[in-house]
């Protein structure tokens, strides 16, 4: 049987390399990445799975290098058709600047034209994240999750699975979604009524909605 998880692509300063394995220091981030891989492999059958490793710690810069790596593979016809990203940052001035946000949004849109589905975690703590500290009304701005707030990806919130339960699983209440809010893109026309209904019921500053 062909091995399923055999390609690791390390993105560093715009360069990429392929190998059969990647190093592991055992940190929390790598433990979570390992769990993500297990979920992916358990549902992907015999599909080949690639693991991207972003090595620079420059989140937005790394993402742009990652996107370029995907585009470089297009002529060969061998590139991932579903990309799952379990990490993001809060859309704040000290993270991704406007030009970087627009560039990454265009890259994800281009991936869509290649037939690639981009699925991104919508975050753990809602649009306030650590800036809110649980008191949303004490702070002046929401901090939407990025890149989950890009309209060309599919943002997925947290779910909980109960062992031995074959019924419907519900979203985990302890994790609030941070996707769906953006300072760069307008609200889609389809959910406008529901969106404003929500805004009128939550504790937040109306001038910022």
TrEMBL record:
Residues 1-34 are annotated as: Disordered. This is Peptidase S53 domain-containing protein. One of its GO terms (molecular function) is serine-type endopeptidase activity. One of its GO terms (biological process) is proteolysis. Residues 14-26 have a biased composition (Low complexity). Residues 1-12 have a biased composition (Basic and acidic residues). Residues 1-209 form the Peptidase S53 domain. InterPro entries: Peptidase_S8/S53_dom_sf (IPR036852), Sedolisin_dom (IPR030400), Tripeptidyl-peptidase_I (IPR050819).
């Amino acid at each position: 049987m062909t091995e399923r998880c055999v390609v690791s692509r390390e993105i560093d300063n715009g360069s990429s390399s392929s190998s059969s394995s990647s190093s592991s220091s055992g940190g929390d981030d790598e433990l979570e990445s390992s769990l993500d891989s297990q979920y992916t492999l358990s549902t992907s059958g015999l599909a080949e799975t690639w693991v991207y490793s972003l090595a620079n710690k420059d989140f937005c810069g790394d993402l742009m290098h990652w996107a370029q790596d995907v585009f470089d593979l297009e002529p060969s016809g061998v590139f991932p058709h579903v990309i799952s990203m379990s990490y993001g940052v809060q859309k704040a001035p000290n993270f991704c600047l406007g030009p970087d946000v627009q560039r990454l949004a265009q890259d994800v849109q281009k991936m869509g034209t290649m037939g690639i589905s981009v699925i991104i975690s919508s975050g753990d703590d809602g649009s306030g994240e650590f800036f809110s500290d649980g008191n949303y009304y004490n702070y002046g701005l929401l901090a939407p999750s990025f890149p989950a707030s890009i309209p060309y990806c599919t943002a997925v919130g947290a779910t909980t699975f109960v062992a031995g339960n074959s019924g419907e699983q519900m979203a985990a209440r302890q994790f609030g979604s941070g996707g769906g809010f953006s300072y760069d893109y307008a609200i889609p026309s389809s959910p406008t009524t529901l969106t404003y209904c929500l805004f009128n019921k939550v504790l937040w500053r109306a001038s910022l909605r």
